[in-house]
Specification:
5% helix; five-stranded antiparallel beta sheet; 1 helix; four-stranded antiparallel beta sheet; mainly beta
């Protein structure tokens, strides 16, 4: 098996392979803000790595000096990356400059998983079980640093696996693993409303009943 990084032209629906890895383990990807390529997390024999995969030209491995690095996300200044680095826990770190040395953001003995910047890039939302169960936490950016994070939600569905901001920055959508449920979270109050996606087979059944 193998994993390919591909792009899809939405006008022509043509696909193009940018890079291929000889296994099926991938640890996230993120578009460069200028659209010139992607940073892709991969798992090679030497461990987890990040690749710069341009739309034109050859891919190259980034020099990020941690054994396991996951879920890259471009930061507000469009040059650094926010990543998860794993040792005994999964902590957030920011990688800037040419050294590849990660700077811990919120040291924690618990696990952190998905991360997402608000549309104005001034708030970082992430999933963490530092309170005992996985919830949404949010931190405000102050210059190059972040304020201490605050717990936004109490009572997310189990197990949250993805997090996305709405374009207006007022709401967070949290996907719940192994369900068709999405928890919609108010970005200020943390109030949760739940949406349920309806599968096509269920749509047909409901349509017949109506």
């Amino acid at each position: 098996s193998h994993t390919a990084t591909m792009v899809l032209d939405l006008k022509t629906l043509q696909t193009r392979v940018l890079e291929t890895e000889p296994n099926d383990a991938q640890s996230g990807l993120t578009w460069a803000p200028d659209g010139s390529g992607l940073v892709v997390g991969i798992n090679r024999r030497r461990g987890f790595r990040l690749l710069w995969v341009p739309l034109q030209g050859a891919a190259r491995e980034l020099d990020v000096r941690v054994p396991i690095v996951l879920n890259p996300v471009f930061t507000h200044h469009h040059k650094g990356l926010m990543v998860l680095f794993a040792d005994r826990t999964r902590n957030l770190a920011e990688v800037t400059g040419e050294t590849g040395d990660p700077k811990p953001v919120f040291p924690s003995r618990q696990r952190n998983t998905e991360t997402a910047f608000s549309p104005d890039m001034q708030q970082l939302a992430f999933l963490s079980d530092r309170s005992g169960t996985f919830e949404v936490w949010v931190a405000q950016r102050n210059g190059e640093n972040f304020s201490p994070p605050r717990q936004l939600t109490h009572g997310l569905g189990w197990y949250p696996s993805s997090i996305v901001w709405s374009p207006d920055g007022h709401t967070l959508a949290v996907g719940i693993s192994n369900t068709n449920q999405i928890d919609m979270v108010d970005a200020q109050s943390g109030a949760i409303s739940r949406s349920r996606l309806i599968a096509r087979s269920e749509e047909r059944r409901v349509g017949k009943e109506c």
